[in-house]
């Protein structure tokens, strides 16, 4: 019996780097590893930022309130029924993710949806959730 470890058994217990080593050696499957399929880190970071912004019921409530048009920060406090500091924190997260945009008018700050792609993403998420 051979003293060499079973390559298939090793593959199941190795880390991702071990799997990549096997792919480089041609052990994994027929054909070369499609390195072009690796997502760019900047793209992943941008997507993660958007999903993190949407991963909160209060922030989702803000986005839904803004579907019909812009609202003042004080109006959004009423929508969320929360303190100014909490609403400001949610709005900052949405703004940093590029979901909402602002404009100042005197001492008031107005918020609006920055890009309709955000609404399309939420519509898609709702459609996926309906199938459950």
Automatic annotation (TrEMBL):
Record-linked PROSITE patterns: HTH_ARSR_2
Keywords for the protein's UniProt record, in alphabetical order: DNA-binding, Transcription, Transcription regulation
Record-annotated HTH arsR-type domain positions: 39-132
Ranges that cross the membrane: none
GO molecular function: DNA binding; DNA-binding transcription factor activity
Pfam families associated with the record: HTH_5
Protein's name in the database: ArsR family transcription regulator
Organism: Natronomonas moolapensis (strain DSM 18674 / CECT 7526 / JCM 14361 / 8.8.11)
